[in-house]
C-alpha cells in the first residue's frame, strides 16, 4: 500500500473509483445552471401575481387593459436571454481560473481539476495550494497549514507524516505528498458548510434595500388590493367590471417588477462587461462594493512593480569572501520548494549544486519572514528579512536602511549555532552577508495612481518588505503621500489606536497576514469601503474580510478561492477599467431606480387614500402601461447603458429617495387636486380620467428630466422622444388608451395643475437635501465625538 502511495493510483484504479462514485465532485460553479436561470426569472411571486391580475382583467371583459402582461413577458424573456448570454462567457472564464491539483498516477505527476480527484489519490502540495480534499500526509518537508477558514485560528499548524490536511485549509509553508481520505460531500469543509447553510454571503446595500422594498410591498399588496376592490365596488355607478379593472390598476402600480428586472439585468450585464475586461466576478454582490470602494489596499509586487526581481549584489559582513558566500547560497537557494518571485530571483542568480546533505530545515513563511536550514558538516544558516533575524542590531539596521532608501530589497544571510524545525527555534545567529535585490516599476503605475486619486480612492500599499524600500518605490511611481510609511512591527496592538492612525498612513512595511487583516478592519471601522488586491497566501485573511477582495489569477489557489473578483491577466493596471465599469453599473442603477420607485410609492399612497375617501381610482391599467413604457421603461433602458462614474457615498436608498419621494408626493397631491376640480366642475368620469392621465404623464416627464439631469444632448433627445411617445399615444390612440376627446374647454385647467408641479417638485427636493445635510452633520459630529 505504501508503494502505491508513492507512485499513485493506476488509470484502472481511478476508473474503478469513479464508477463507485468515489470522486471529489463539488458544487463550486460561479454561474447558475440554465434551468436555475429560467426558474429565477419565471417563477417569481410578482409574475404569479401579474398572471392572477391578468385573469381578473379577462373576467372583466376589458381585454385591452392586458397590455401590462405583454411587458411582463418581454421583461422575463430579456432577463433569461441576457443571463444565459453572460453565463456562456463566465463559464468560459471559469475554466481558466478553476482550481487544479497535482496528483501522482502511474508514478507520474499530472495536473487535474479538483473535481476529478478520487479516493486514495496521492496529491502533491506546496506553499500557496489550497487543500481540495481531506488527506493524510505521506511526506512532509516543513508543511505548515493555515486552518483559519475551518477553525477560525489563523496561527499556522505544523503537519508531519500521518497528520490530516483538511479541505479548505491552505499551505503557508513547505511541501509534500498526501493521500486523499475523503471526497465530495464527505470532506470536512463540506460537512461544516452543510451545517451552516444560512451563512451570510457578501451582500450589497443596494440589493438589501431593494429586497426590503419588495418584502414590504409583497406583504401589503394583497390586503390593500382586497380593500381597494371593496372600496371600488361601493363607488356610485361603478360596475363589477370597472371595479376589477381599477383594482388591477392600483395593484400593478405597486409592483416594482421593473426595479427588480433593472437591477438583476444590470448586475448580470455588469458581470459580462467585467468578464470582457478579463475579470471574473465570483460573487455578483461585490460589484456594488467595488463601485463604492474609497480605500484600495494592495501589495507592492505586481501592482507598483512588475514582480520580476533580480539579485544585484552580495555585500559580505564577515571574513567570508563573496565566493564563499556564493557557495553557501548555491545550496540554500535550491533547498526549498517555495514558489515566489524572491525565490525565482535567487535561483536565477545562484547555481544548483546540491552537494551538501540537509539535516533540518524551517521553510519560509510570511509570519516568520525568514527560512533556516542546517547541513551535515557545513553548519546551519538563516536567510530572510534582516530586522526579523537580527532584532536590535542597530548598526546592521542602519546599513540596511541605506540600501532600502534606494529602493532595494535586502536579504540577510546569517549563520546559526542551532535550528530546530520541531521547536521552530533558531539560536546563535551571526550575520554573514547582505543580498541586494531590485525590482522594476511598472510603466503604467503612475497613470493608475492618478486615476484613483481623481476618483477619491485612497491607495494604501501593504507589503511584507522593508517600509523604506516600499515607500521609495511608491513615491517614484507617483503614489500620493507615498512618503508616509510605517514599520508594521511598530503598530499598536490596540485596535482602537490602530483605527485612529491608519488614515494618515499610506505605506505599510513588514506586515504579517494577521496585521493585514487588522489594517483592513481598521479602515472599515472608520466607515471606509475597502478593496483588497492580493495574490499570495499571506493575503488570504485580508481578502476574506475586505468589502471587495480581488485576487490575481496567477496567484495562490487559496487567494482565488476567497476573493470576490479574480483578475485573469494578473495586472493591477486593469483595476482602472474594472472600478470604472463597476461605478458605471451602480451609478446607472441608482439613476433609473428613482423612476421605478416613484411609481411604487405613489401607487401605494394613492391606494390607501382612495380606499379612505371612497372615490374611483384615478387610473386604469392601460394608462399605467402607457406611462410605464414611455416615461420609465424606454428611458431606463438607455440611461442604464450610459458611461458615467458618479457614485454617491450616501447609500442607495437615501440617494434614490432624493428624487423618488418628492416625485411621488407631487403625483399624489396633483391627483387630489384633480378630484377637487372634478367635484367643483362636475366633470364626468371620462373627462376626469383624461385629466388624470395628462397630469400624471406630465409629472412623469418632469421626474424623467430630474433623473436625467444634468441634461446633455443625448439625454435631451431621450426626453424629447419619450415626451413625443406620450403625446402621440394620447392624441392619435386616444380610444385605445381610454382617453376621451381632449379638445374641450374644461381641459384648460390641466395647464395650471401641471404648471405648479415643477416648482412643487423643486421645493420637495430642496427640503430632502436640507434634511439629508442636517443628518450628515449630526452623524459627523457623533463620529468625531466618538
From TrEMBL:
**A Pfam family matched in the record:** Hydrolase
| Sequence intervals crossing the membrane | 42-60, 213-231, 243-269, 593-613, 619-641, 661-682, 688-705, 717-737, 743-761
Q: Which residues form the P-type ATPase A domain?
A: 97-195
Does this UniProt record's set of keywords contain Nuclease? no
Say where the protein is mainly found: membrane
For this protein, the Enzyme Commission number is 3.6.3.-
| Superkingdom | Bacteria
Keywords noted in UniProt: Hydrolase, Membrane, Translocase, Transmembrane, Transmembrane helix
InterPro entries this protein is in?
ATPase_P-typ_cyto_dom_N (IPR023299), ATPase_P-typ_P_site (IPR018303), ATPase_P-typ_TM_dom_sf (IPR023298), ATPase_P-typ_transduc_dom_A_sf (IPR008250), ATPase_P-type_domA (IPR059000), HAD-like_sf (IPR036412), HAD_sf (IPR023214), P_typ_ATPase (IPR001757)
UniProt GO molecular function: ATP binding; ATP hydrolysis activity
Sorted alphabetically, the Gene Ontology cellular component annotations on this record are:
membrane
Q: Where in the cell is it found?
A: Membrane
Entry-linked NCBIfam families:
ATPase_P-type
Q: Would you tell me the protein name for this molecule?
A: Cation-transporting ATPase E
Amino acid at each position: 500500500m505504501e508503494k502505491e502511495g508513492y507512485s499513485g493510483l493506476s488509470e484502472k484504479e481511478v476508473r474503478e473509483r469513479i464508477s463507485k462514485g468515489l470522486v471529489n465532485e463539488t458544487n463550486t460553479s460561479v454561474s447558475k445552471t440554465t434551468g436555475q436561470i429560467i426558474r429565477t426569472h419565471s417563477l417569481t411571486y410578482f409574475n404569479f401575481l401579474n398572471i392572477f391580475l391578468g385573469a381578473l382583467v379577462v373576467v372583466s371583459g376589458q381585454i385591452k387593459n392586458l397590455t401590462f402582461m405583454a411587458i411582463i413577458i418581454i421583461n422575463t424573456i430579456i432577463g433569461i436571454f441576457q443571463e444565459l448570454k453572460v453565463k456562456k462567457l463566465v463559464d468560459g472564464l471559469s475554466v481558466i481560473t478553476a482550481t487544479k491539483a497535482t496528483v501522482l498516477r502511474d508514478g507520474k505527476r499530472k495536473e487535474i481539476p479538483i473535481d476529478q480527484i478520487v479516493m486514495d489519490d496521492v496529491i502533491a502540495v506546496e506553499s500557496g495550494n489550497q487543500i481540495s480534499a481531506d488527506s493524510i500526509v505521506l511526506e512532509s518537508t516543513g508543511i505548515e497549514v493555515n486552518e483559519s477558514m475551518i477553525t477560525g485560528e489563523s496561527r499556522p499548524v505544523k503537519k508531519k507524516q500521518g497528520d490530516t490536511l483538511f479541505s479548505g485549509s491552505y499551505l503557508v509553508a513547505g511541501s509534500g505528498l498526501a493521500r486523499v481520505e475523503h471526497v465530495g460531500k464527505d470532506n470536512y469543509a463540506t460537512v461544516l458548510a452543510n451545517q451552516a447553510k444560512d451563512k451570510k454571503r457578501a451582500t450589497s446595500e443596494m440589493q438589501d434595500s431593494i429586497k426590503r422594498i419588495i418584502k414590504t410591498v409583497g406583504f401589503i399588496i394583497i390586503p390593500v388590493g382586497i380593500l381597494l376592490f371593496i372600496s371600488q365596488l361601493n363607488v356610485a355607478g361603478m360596475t363589477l367590471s370597472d371595479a376589477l379593472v381599477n383594482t388591477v390598476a392600483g395593484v400593478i402600480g405597486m409592483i416594482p417588477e421593473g426595479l427588480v428586472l433593472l437591477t438583476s439585468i444590470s448586475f448580470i450585464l455588469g458581470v459580462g462587461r467585467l468578464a470582457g475586461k478579463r475579470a471574473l466576478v465570483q460573487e455578483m454582490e461585490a460589484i456594488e462594493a467595488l463601485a463604492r470602494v474609497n480605500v484600495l489596499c494592495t501589495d507592492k509586487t505586481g501592482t507598483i512593480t512588475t514582480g520580476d526581481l533580480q539579485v544585484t549584489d552580495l555585500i559580505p559582513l564577515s571574513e567570508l569572501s563573496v565566493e564563499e558566500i556564493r557557495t553557501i547560497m548555491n545550496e540554500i537557494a535550491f533547498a526549498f520548494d517555495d514558489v515566489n518571485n524572491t525565490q525565482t530571483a535567487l535561483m536565477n542568480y545562484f547555481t544548483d549544486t546540491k552537494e551538501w546533505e540537509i539535516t533540518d530545515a524551517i521553510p519560509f513563511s510570511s509570519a516568520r519572514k525568514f527560512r533556516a536550514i542546517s547541513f551535515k558538516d557545513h553548519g546551519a544558516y538563516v536567510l530572510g528579512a534582516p530586522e526579523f533575524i537580527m532584532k536590535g542590531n542597530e548598526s546592521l539596521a542602519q546599513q540596511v536602511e541605506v540600501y532600502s532608501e534606494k529602493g532595494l530589497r535586502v536579504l540577510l544571510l546569517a549563520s546559526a549555532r542551532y535550528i530546530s524545525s520541531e521547536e521552530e527555534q533558531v539560536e546563535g545567529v551571526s550575520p554573514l552577508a547582505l543580498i541586494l535585490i531590485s525590482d522594476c516599476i511598472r510603466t503604467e503605475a503612475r497613470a493608475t495612481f492618478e486615476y484613483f486619486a481623481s476618483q477619491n480612492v485612497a491607495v494604501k500599499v501593504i507589503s511584507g518588505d522593508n517600509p523604506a524600500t516600499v515607500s521609495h518605490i511608491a513615491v517614484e511611481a507617483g503614489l500620493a503621500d507615498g512618503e508616509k510609511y510605517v514599520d508594521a512591527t511598530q503598530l499598536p496592538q490596540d485596535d482602537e489606536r490602530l483605527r485612529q492612525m491608519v488614515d494618515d498612513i499610506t505605506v505599510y512595511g513588514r506586515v504579517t497576514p494577521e496585521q493585514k487583516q487588522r489594517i483592513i478592519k481598521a479602515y472599515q471601522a472608520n466607515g471606509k469601503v475597502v478593496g483588497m488586491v492580493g495574490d499570495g497566501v499571506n493575503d488570504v485573511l485580508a481578502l476574506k474580510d475586505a468589502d471587495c477582495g480581488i485576487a490575481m489569477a496567477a496567484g495562490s489557489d487559496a487567494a482565488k478561492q476567497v476573493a470576490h473578483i479574480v483578475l485573469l491577466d494578473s495586472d493591477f493596471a486593469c483595476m482602472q477599467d474594472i472600478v470604472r465599469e463597476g461605478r458605471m453599473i451602480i451609478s446607472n442603477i441608482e439613476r433609473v431606480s428613482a423612476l421605478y420607485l416613484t411609481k411604487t410609492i405613489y401607487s401605494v399612497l394613492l391606494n390607501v387614500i382612495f380606499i379612505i375617501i371612497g372615490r374611483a381610482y384615478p387610473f386604469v391599467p392601460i394608462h399605467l402601461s402607457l406611462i410605464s413604457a414611455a416615461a420609465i421603461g424606454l428611458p431606463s433602458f438607455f440611461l442604464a447603458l450610459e458611461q458615467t462614474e458618479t457614485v454617491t457615498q450616501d447609500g442607495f436608498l437615501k440617494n434614490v429617495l432624493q428624487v423618488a419621494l418628492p416625485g411621488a408626493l407631487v403625483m399624489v397631491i396633483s391627483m387630489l387636486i384633480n378630484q377637487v376640480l372634478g367635484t367643483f366642475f362636475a366633470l364626468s368620469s371620462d373627462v376626469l380620467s383624461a385629466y388624470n392621465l395628462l397630469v400624471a404623464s406630465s409629472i412623469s416627464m418632469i421626474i424623467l428630466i430630474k433623473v436625467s439631469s444634468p441634461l446633455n444632448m443625448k439625454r435631451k433627445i431621450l426626453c424629447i422622444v419619450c415626451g413625443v411617445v406620450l403625446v402621440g399615444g394620447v392624441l392619435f390612440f386616444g380610444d385605445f388608451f381610454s382617453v376621451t376627446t381632449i379638445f374641450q374647454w374644461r381641459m384648460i385647467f390641466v395647464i395650471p395643475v401641471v404648471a405648479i408641479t415643477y416648482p412643487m417638485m423643486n421645493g420637495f427636493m430642496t427640503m430632502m437635501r436640507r434634511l439629508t445635510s442636517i443628518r450628515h452633520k449630526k452623524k459627523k459630529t457623533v463620529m468625531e465625538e466618538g
